[in-house]
Amino acid sequence: MELIFKSIIMGIVEGITEFLPISSTGHLIIVGDLLKFTGEKAKIFEIIIQLGAILAVVCLYFDRFWGLIKPKENTGFYGIRGIFLLILTTIPASILGFFLEGYIKSRLFFPKSVAMALLVGGIMIFIVEGTKKKFKYRSLDEITPSLALGIGLSQCLALWPGFSRSASTIMGGMILGADRRLSAEYSFIAAVPIMFGATALEVMKNYSLFTLHDIFILGIGFIVSFISAYFAVKGFIHLLSKITLRPFGIYRVILAIIVILYMK
User: Fold this and answer.
1) How confident is the model at residue 163 (pLDDT cuts 50, 70, 90)?
2) Exposure b/e, 114-127, CB count within 10 A at least 16 = b
3) % of the chain beyond a pLDDT of 70
4) Domain coverage including residue 134
5) Domain count, the chain
6) Confidence at residue 143, expressed as pLDDT on a 0 to 100 scale
7) 49 CB-contact burial (10 Å; exposed 0-12 / middle 13-18 / buried 19+)
8) What is the Cα–Cα distance from 238 to 246, expressed in whole angstroms?
9) Helices 40-48 and 2-17: crossing angle, nearest 10°?
10) To which H or E segment does residue 117 belong?
11) How high is the pLDDT of residue 264?
């Protein structure tokens, strides 16, 4: 029962935080440390339950993903052009992550490192929101190759656990002229290929470590992650029409200070 409880908590944390600019990886490391849910299996569990959050985005933006496979046209964010844009966004972090994977896992997956990433990302949110911007792009169909690549380069910041892939891509999009809502929506959609690839790789590398009981626990985390991510994404998009990212920046800074002061 204890493992089921931990799986549910971790699934909720993953689903709620994956697409908000507050870092799911950072929260999973912090909460996992508090729950004593650590070790190699726990790290793999955290990666695999991301698949639930990924599928939530696929369901919410099904028409957009279907438009990539069965396009009405090859302009805008459809068909080959849309797939090309996603590839441009995915390439930089994929290449850098491939070369830095060992260093990241051995040196940066700790609460204090996560806290520093939360703090730096929180400060950057205030800087980005504090600058006057003219938004040139307001629809997925207006995304250009240079914008897609620029967002992909900004996504590299998310390799630092705690920085947040969502925060880095949303801020990158805003800096490059995409409005807040578009930056968030493209961030969600662009997350699918890179997160799916990372999850599939972990499953292939480590499937032999898991027993049938472990798979049952993973299934619970997966389902809870899917449900919580579904509602978190819908709520976040609704909020962005009314607020800036500043409340998330405040939350990040407060959480970072708490972790620095009270966690080892």
Assistant:
1) very high
2) bbbbbbbbbebbbe
3) 100
4) 2-262
5) 1
6) 97
7) buried
8) 16
9) 50
10) helix 111-130
11) 66
